[in-house]
Amino acid sequence: MTALLVLAVLATLLGGTVLAALMDRAALPLAALLTRQRVETEAPDRMNRDLSSAWYLALAAIGLSVVPFAPGLALIDSPVGIVIWGSCEALVVVTVFLHGWSPNAPFPLIGAYRYAAIGLPIMLPSMFVLIAAALPAESLSLIDIVESQREIWNVLRQPLGLPLFLVVALAMTLRGPMDYADAADIATGTSAEESGAARALWQVARLAMLVSISAIAATVFLGGPLGPVLPGPVWLWLKTAALMALTVWIGNRVARTTPDRMLTILWVVLLPLSFLGLIIAGVMAL
Amino acid sequence: MAMTHLVRWAARAPAPVYAAIGPGRQAEVERLLTRPGLNRAKTPRDAAILLVAGDLPSSSLDALNRLHDQLPRPRTTLRWLDGDQEAIAHRITTALRALCDGAAGEDDRLPDTPANEWKGIGPHGQGGKGMMGGTPYGRPMAMTGKDVRDGLQLDRYTTRVGPFAPMLPPGLVLEVTLQGDVICEASVQAAPFAQPAEADAPALCAARMLRLLGLDAAADRVIRGRPLRAAWVTGAVPRGLARINDTDARDRLSAWLRSRTVTVAPPDLAALLPGSEWSEAMLILASLPPSALIRAARATEAA
């Protein structure tokens, strides 16, 4: 069964990444990148440069490993699955920072620091909405959170949760209105000096993270593998794909404001809103 | 076999083009790069084709050579002088196919060695004496100075950006002193290249701001004269940014999106940019019609 679950996680990550590349119309450009040279900057931090994309991919895989593919069945059946995912989110900030730090160039470094500044206030609403979703389940396990949604999905029980988590998803996948690390005004920021296969790998890792965070959102807010007729994994894949499409659509359609203004929005609007959601969920769970 | 498939897919991908735009060619290039089959690269590292549009002044040839060498191999340079869009689009796709078919591409134009020997200490060359300020081994290092916002001591880093930087108007060379991404000082080292009135067209001006707001697809749609299809567009531009003649950057974007031409008096760039973050500064520059920006930069340069 463990081998089957390992296969399910890897197949979901691989298939989902290909689907995400198609949604982004990035499949052919990614293939083209592999035919081009990888350029070196002067005195880069080679170890972190090579590791950052690998970390990003690994965090996407680790995040997906706590997602139940059927009721009661996850590769890592942890009593603190939500905390494992939370640590993945926090480490994404570190990974993106290292990606910007390592080329030893100004625009990547600006992207790295910007992302670190945005990263903290985006972590807090994320943790609040996830804890709010854990309250009805009285558990931090994603398997228990799925079970708690048999009667009503969290997207209906806690309507603030999914919209707020989608903002987190945009930030974790460096996309559209939350892409402060690889933005156009800094020539794609942390990726500005990267070419060829290295650039392709970073883009693939971003797409893989989109799969992972969409699967987490599907699990926490849309009942994960729960659903009639079709088998559990199919429901999870369908819900994940729908959330991936929604995130891509928002990313392409919503404008990105300046980092300074986004910081104000995060601290003054989204953080209190997520805290309000947590208080309401707490009172309802009493 | 896998390599054959890869090369075949690469040949079918949109051609990644980085444009070095010369005098009078900004509008034509911006329209060209919205064509299907062409992809406007946001950094030279992501391009295979260097498009040199128009006659560049000899003062920017060094910068062009440096830009050329920043493109990864295999790469090719195409010069576009006549303004025929069909012909250049065909030449670009043909050149990409040739690169995918194994054409050698171009060698570096400049020696691939550091201008100054690197003498850092440690496994990553990260350490050494005198790491604050000055130009050890020919490299300018950050030095602490008063933060322009709260007076704390923060690193200041001075660098030049342009004349072919993707976020700046073609030809503009800025020398900026940054603390983090806040501009403390800015001076114009070279004014943007002169552009005809067509570069002030509302659709083109709006598209430049839309790209900075992360709305590439919307920018292409606006240039092609189609509906915008994007949300929170003007709202994303902070109020009060670059207020000139009673209009700020948001007002100007709003007017351009309604197909209205905007005229503003040339501002004092050296006074306008300091104190703003890099992303705000780029929005400020994009919110000025090229004609006003060129006059402003020339006045600042002369001063």
UniProtKB/TrEMBL annotation, chain A:
GO molecular function, one term: NADH dehydrogenase activity
Keywords carried by this UniProt record: Membrane, NAD, Oxidoreductase, Transmembrane, Transmembrane helix
UniProt GO BP: aerobic respiration
Record's GO cellular component terms: plasma membrane
A Pfam family per the record: NADHdh
InterPro entries (UniProt xref): NADH_UbQ_OxRdtase_su1/FPO
EC number: 1.6.5.11
Annotated protein name in UniProt: NADH-quinone oxidoreductase subunit H
TrEMBL record, chain B:
Region annotation Disordered: where it falls in the sequence: 110-130
Protein name (record): Uncharacterized protein
Species assigned in the record: Palleronia abyssalis
Taxonomic lineage of the native organism: Bacteria, Pseudomonadati, Pseudomonadota, Alphaproteobacteria, Rhodobacterales
